[in-house]
Amino acid sequence: MYYRSQHRPFHNALFQHAYEKNNNIAIPVNIYETEKAFEIELMVPGRNKTNFTIQSENGLLTVEYNQPTAQKETNNKILQKQFAAQSFKKVFSLPENIQTDNIEAAYTDGVLKISLPLKAVKTPVAKNIAVA
């Protein structure tokens, strides 16, 4: 059995974005709750997984992407440019029932998936007390 808060995390400010760096781009996020974990998905296509940094500290989960600034040499004149992979930073507040030592992440098909396992709860055991 795993610990679940009485309230949904989306209604009591858990998992709310503490802040975002780079407001020029919006990174879509899905958050799911399973029996044993919360799952966060970020839609970030066209990135290199080695440029992601994910850190859990002081009740915050920080997801950062640093886009290298290498310029491509080309003789072509850009007429229109509507997309480019950009650096970003998203910070989420975490509930207290997360096993921060066991957080896992994977980047597949343009989606960064972060698994936040829930802490196991010890079920109280009834104990008979003898009267002396």
The CATH class turns out to be Mainly Beta
Distance between the termini: 35 Å
Give helix and strand order, one letter per element, not per position: EEEEEEEE
Largest sheet: 4 strands, antiparallel
* Cα-atom radius of gyration: 21 Å
Give the name of the CATH architecture: Sandwich
Report the count of strand segments: 8
Strand share of the residues? 35-45%
* Main β-sheet, spatial strand arrangement: 1-6-5-4
Q: Quick one: overall form?
A: rod-shaped
Topology diagram in text:
Layout: E1 17-21, E2 29-33, E3 37-43, E4 52-57, E5 60-65, E6 88-93, E7 104-108, E8 111-117
Antiparallel strand pairs: 1-6, 2-3, 3-8, 4-5, 5-6, 7-8
Describe the protein's architecture and organization.
The chain has 132 residues and is an all-beta fold. It has a single domain (1-68, 81-132), classed as Immunoglobulin-like, CATH 2.60.40. Helix content is 0%, strand content 36%. It has strands spanning 17-21, 29-33, 37-43, 52-57, 60-65, 88-93, 104-108, 111-117. A four-stranded antiparallel β-sheet has the order 1-6-5-4, with no helix packed on it. A four-stranded antiparallel β-sheet has the order 2-3-8-7, with no helix packed on it. A hairpin with a 3-residue loop joins strand 2 (29-33) and strand 3 (37-43). It is rod-shaped, with a radius of gyration of 21 Å. The two termini are 35 Å apart. The model is unreliable at 1-12 (pLDDT under 50).
